Amino acid sequence: MKYKFIELEIKNYVAEVGLARTNSLNALSLEFAAEIADVFQKLGKMDEVRAIILASKARIFCAGLDLKEAAGHFKATAKGVIESVENSQSLFDSCNAIEECPKPVIAAVHSRCIGGGLDIISACDIRLCTEDATFCLKEAAIGLVADMGVLQRLPLIVGQGFARQMAYTAAEYPAQVVEKMGLVNAVYKDKEALMAGAKKLAAEIAQNAPLGVRCSKEVLNYSRYANVHDGMALAMQKNMVLMTSDDIKEAVTAFIEKRPPDFKGR
Question: What are the phi and psi torsion angles at 249 (to 5°)?
């Protein structure tokens, strides 16, 4: 798994995905977005990965959409507009692949997270950040509408009021404010502390039964758009399958033997 703009490391069941289009401050080009989609689709199928940390190798987390590339592809004709949308599919896929990845994804954000960067982290399961982090939905300031899923996902995280405030003002919101909104779970002093916190959280996830975690994410994702009754029905269906797994047998045996369980994801 070699990428032009992504650095990948897998250790102790945790994958670290480093966004590394550093010269452009991780501005989202079509090629970069396609790599993001590809890496999450592949990691989702790997048994040796149980949790994923998404971080930046650049000076900031993400500068948003690569506007120079986008402007170059746009043609002011009906056919041109249709082609532009079709050619932009990798941008939408990058966020969808994160949300649909069966492994929990932790976003570790430092410095500025702008536009498309907020789309990306809104598709993650958990978000952490540094004290100097800021978050901004920039599209309204340049005459556009955010269209990579943030306007659909963000209200489910912070509520309609805060999501609309961010979308309408296009202002940069600091870590302390977005923590109160519920956008991030924790704020760390610096990037070193952030990564240590993200790794600790990922390790806690990775020690649990992989199939149980995977099915929990699937039920949580489904339940955001379903009523309580339908969400519970899916959870019960998942448990009917999980009750036959080797992992639940290992959990019972480990409890009786008073030792930590050794789950295999089977």
Answer: -65, -40
Q: 3-class SS at 109?
A: strand
19 half-sphere exposure, CB direction, 13 A CA radius? 33
CATH number at 241 reads: 1.10.12
Strand partners, 28: 65
Q: What is the pTM of this model?
A: 0.92
Give CB contacts under 8 A, 24+ apart, made by 98-101: 98/36, 98/40, 98/54, 98/123, 98/124, 99/123, 99/149, 99/153, 99/221, 100/44, 100/221, 101/40, 101/41, 101/43, 101/44, 101/52
Residues 85 and 14 in one domain: yes
Q: Are residues 248 and 184 in the same domain?
A: no
pLDDT digit string (tens) for 92-105? 999 999 999 999 99
pLDDT value for 1 = 77
Asked if residue 183 is part of any domain, the answer here is yes
119-139 mean pLDDT: 97
3-state secondary structure of 125: coil
Of the candidates 57, 52, 58, 26, which has an alpha carbon nearest to the alpha carbon of residue 39?
Answer: 52
